[in-house]
Specification:
Blueprint lengths: L12 H18 L2 H9 L12 H6 L4 H26 L16 H25 L4 E3 L3 H13 L1 H24 L2 H14 L5 H6 L4 H18 L3 H17 E2 L11 E3 L5 H22 L5 H6 L4 H4 L1
Parallel strand pairs: 2-3
Antiparallel strand pairs: 1-3
Length: 310
């Protein structure tokens, strides 16, 4: 079982608390140094009062691709911190926070990636066909090719890091500490949502929009627990972010990109949440049939008997 295989290693509750702190330092402090240096180097200190949000600070650095590159570096350092903590603090096989299978199932990763990529891309172009006035055409070949390179080489690090941190490391930690499978996917999903609390989307739409991130986190968490591995969530998360970065951006997005389209439609919580409430259950249903998931109640809400598993 994906959660309890961590019991073969060091799983004291304090290790997870200390481990998360160490990972956070790698990710948000050490990893942010290049970005902060670039921001300070390009900051007009005589005009600080005119800066209204974080996106304005980032825009002072230079091109959107440079900003994206610097932001992605933070996740690279976070990944290094996660690997260090798992291998040294927990003395744990790193594969065990990815999957319970003997080897990582790359076919699962590819399959979930293709499904989410095709569906999400289709929805964007259907929306454009129905309501072209909601989009501005923004395609420029050279910056788009640079963006594509960043998305191929660095974006998978960001999405995989977030999955392995929340749906791998923390999912196992909460499950073992609280002896509850429900806690294993609910609490990491809440943390996943709260990690986005300072995003510009929250300024634009309010704290209610955190529900979209939490709902996404719970969906990926169900994938992980029911499928006994992170492969499906890794593929789906990468596809989700890739589509956004390549095909549609907006001035209220957390990370701006040189995407094909810029959305000029005024967003609302309802317009963002209702599609998710329809889409995510369909994804769960599809993968449950594809991979024959069974014993839903026990897998999602059962108790974890530490003595029997260890």
């Amino acid at each position: 079982m994906f959660i309890t295989q961590a019991l073969n290693f060091k799983t004291d509750w304090w290790r997870y608390l200390l481990g998360f702190f160490i990972i956070f330092i790698f990710w948000q402090f050490i990893g942010a140094i290049p970005l902060v240096v670039a921001m300070v180097a390009n900051l007009d200190f005589s005009n600080l009062e005119s800066i209204e949000n974080a996106n304005e600070l980032l825009s002072n650095i230079g091109s959107k691709n440079l900003v994206l590159f610097l932001l992605m570096l933070g996740f690279l350092f976070g990944f290094i911190g996660l690997y260090f903590v798992v291998k040294n603090l927990h003395q744990q096989d790193f594969k065990s926070i990815i999957t319970s299978r003997e080897t990582v199932d790359y076919r699962r990763i590819l399959h979930s990636f293709l499904i989410v990529f095709v569906v999400n891309t289709s929805m964007i172009f259907i929306s454009y066909a129905i309501s072209p006035e909601s989009f501005e055409y923004n395609f420029k070949l050279e910056p788009f090719l640079i963006l594509l390179s960043i998305c191929i080489f660095l974006l998978p690090i960001q999405t995989t890091f977030e999955e392995l941190l929340t749906r791998g490391y923390l999912l196992q930690g909460f499950g073992i500490a609280l002896k509850s499978k429900a806690a294993a996917f609910i609490f990491p999903s809440l943390i996943f949502g709260l990690l986005h609390i300072f995003n510009p989307e929250i300024d634009k739409l309010g704290y209610g929009f955190l529900a979209a991130y939490i709902l996404m986190g719970m969906t990926w968490g169900i994938f992980t627990i029911m499928d006994d591995g992170n492969e499906l969530s890794i593929g789906a998360h990468y596809a989700n972010n890739l589509v956004v970065f390549l095909f549609v951006t907006a001035d209220w997005h957390a990370i701006q990109s040189d995407a094909v389209f810029v959305s000029v439609e005024e967003p609302t919580i309802t317009s963002m949440l209702i599609p998710a409430l329809i889409y995510y259950p369909i994804l769960i249903y599809y993968f449950s049939k594809k991979y024959n998931w069974e014993n839903w109640s026990e897998k999602l809400f059962g108790k974890i008997n530490i003595e029997d598993e260890s």
